[in-house]
Amino acid sequence: MLFTTKFSSLLHAIGAILSAGIMMTLLLTSCMQTNTKTDAVNAATDALPSLQNTIMAAGGVNKGFLHPNGKAYFLNYYSASVVAKDALLRKIPLPDLHPPLGQILSDIGFDSQSGLVYVLDRAADAIHVISETTLITTLVGIAEQPRMIVEDQDSNEVYIFYTSQTRKTDRFRALIMSGTTVVAETILPASPWAVKYNPIDGHIYGAGEQYMADGSQSNALFVIDNHRVITTILPLDSNPQLGVVDMAINPENGDVHVLLSTKVVTWDRVNPPYSVNLLEAGYKNPQCITVDPTRELLYVCSWMEKGSYALVMTKERFKTAIPIKKWPEAIAWDRKHDYVYIAHYDPTNLSIIRGTDLITTLDIVGFGTSNIVVDEDGGRIYTANADDGSISVFGFDQADKPSFWQRFLPFIQR
Fold first, then answer.
1. Half-sphere exposure of 247 (CA within 13 A, CB side)
2. CA 321, 325, 327: angle at the middle one, nearest 5?
3. pLDDT by residue (tens digit) across 148-197?
C-alpha cells in the first residue's frame, strides 16, 4: 500500500513536470511566433532599398508609370520603354510624323480597364496607342499639340489636354477618349500645368494659368466631372501672378495641394483655399511636391544657391527643412515601406526620408535623374535618368532578420 501510494505520487510529480514542460514549450513557441511577426514588421519597415540593376533604355527617358500589369512604362525621346521587374522587356519605336523637326513626346498614360497605353506627340499632333508591347495605331489630328494625359478611374476614360493653335477663343481643351474612340471634348477655363485624378470624389483636377486680353495672367484651379468643368477657382491665390509648378492630392481625404512658385495652396474642397508662403519661411525654387497621408505631411523639393532642402509642412503651416543633396527634381511617397523618395538631377542621388528625418542618401548609376516610379507591391523603385538614357532599379530584396528566438533558442524549431 505504501509502495502504491509512493508510486502514485511519483506519477503525479512526473505528470506535473511534463505539463509544466509542455506549457513552457507552448509559451516559448508563442513568444517566438509573436517576436517573429514583430521582427518581420520591423524588418519590412526598417529595410533600405539597394541598387539592383541599371538598364540602358533610350535617350531622354523621363516620364513613366506603373501599369496594372505590373510592368513599368517610360517615355524616351523617340520611343517607349517597357521594364519587367529589373530588366528591359522591350523598347517600342514610335514613328516620326514630323520630319525634319522630329518628335516631341510630351506625356505617357494608360487606361486601366483596356490596358492601352497612350503616348502624346506634340510636334505631330499625334496620339500613339500601345497594347502591352506593341504599337497598334496612331491617331493624328484629333488634338493639337497634346501636352498631358490623365485617366478618369471612375469611367476608365482618358483626358488628353491640349491648346488649340487655330482657335482664337476657347483654346484650352480636353479630349476624352475610351479606347481609341473620341467620346467627348470639353473647353477649359485655363491652360493646365498639372493634372491629377482625385480618388475620393472621382473628379479630375487641373491647376494652371488663365491668360487675359491685356497680356496678364492668373493662376487657377478647375474641376472636371462627367466631361464638363464643374468648379473654377480664379485666381487660386491672392497673388495671381504666381505660376503653377506641381500638384499633389491626398489619397485618403481628397485634399488638393497646388505648388506655386513661392507658395503651397491647399483646398479641402469645402472651405476657401489656404496658402503657406515658402518664401517667407526663407526658401525658394520649389520643384516638386508629394503628400504622406499617414502623417498628414506635405513634402516640397527646394533648391537654392547654398543648399537644397526637403521642406516638410502641414497644410496650415511650415514645419521644418531637411538638408539634402542639391538639385532635387522628383519626389514620390511609398506607403508600404513608409518612405519619401527624392531624386536628384545632378549629381544623381536618391534621398530617403521618413517623417522629418533623412534616413540615407543612395547613389544612382546614371545621369540626369528626372523622375521616380514606385512599385510598392514589387518592392522596387525606378529612377529615370534622362541624360544617359538609363533606368536605375532599386529593390528591397534582402533577407529578413532572424528573430530573437531564432538566434538564441534554435532548438525550439527542431
1. 27
2. 95
3. 999 999 999 999 999 998 887 789 999 999 999 999 999 999 999 999 99
Flag residues of the chain having pLDDT under 50.
Answer: 1-8, 10-11, 13-44, 399-414
Among residues 382, 364, 380, 385, the alpha carbon closest in space to that of 372 is found at 382
Cell of 23: 506549457
Work out the number of other CB atoms within 10 angstroms of the CB of residue 103: 22
Please report the pLDDT score of residue 413 as a whole number.
35
128: cell is: 500613339
Angstrom distance (rounded) from CA 218 to CA 233: 10
Report d(CA 364, CA 366) in Å as an integer. 6
Cα 91–Cα 94–Cα 96 angle in degrees, nearest 5: 145
**What per-residue confidence (pLDDT) applies to 134?**
98
Q: Do residues 219 and 236 make contact, with C-beta atoms less than 8 angstroms apart?
A: yes
**Region of 70 on the Ramachandran plot (φ > 0 left; ψ -120 to 50 alpha; else beta):** left
Task: State in Å, rounded, how far the first CA of the chain is from the last one.
Answer: 42
CA distances from 183 to 145, 224, 226, 228 (A): 19, 15, 11, 13
Q: Which of 197, 191, 200, 195 is nearest to 243 (CA)?
A: 191
φ/ψ of residue 43, rounded to 5: -65, -45
Pairwise CA distance, residues 290 & 50, whole Å? 22
Distance CA(23)–CA(18), nearest Å, equals 9
Residue 235 to residue 331: CA distance in whole angstroms: 27
With residue 44 as reference, give the H or E element that holds it: helix 2-46
Residue with cell 521644418: 320
The DSSP secondary structure of 326-378, one letter per residue, reads S-EEEEEEETTTTEEEEEESSS-EEEEEETTEEEEEEE-SSS-EEEEEEETTT
pLDDT tens for each residue of 232-272: 999 999 999 999 999 999 999 999 999 999 999 999 999 99
> Tell me, what's the pLDDT at 397?
76
Q: Are strands 263-267 and 274-277 parallel, antiparallel or unpaired?
A: antiparallel
The answer to whether 338 touches 353, Cβ cutoff 8 Å, is no
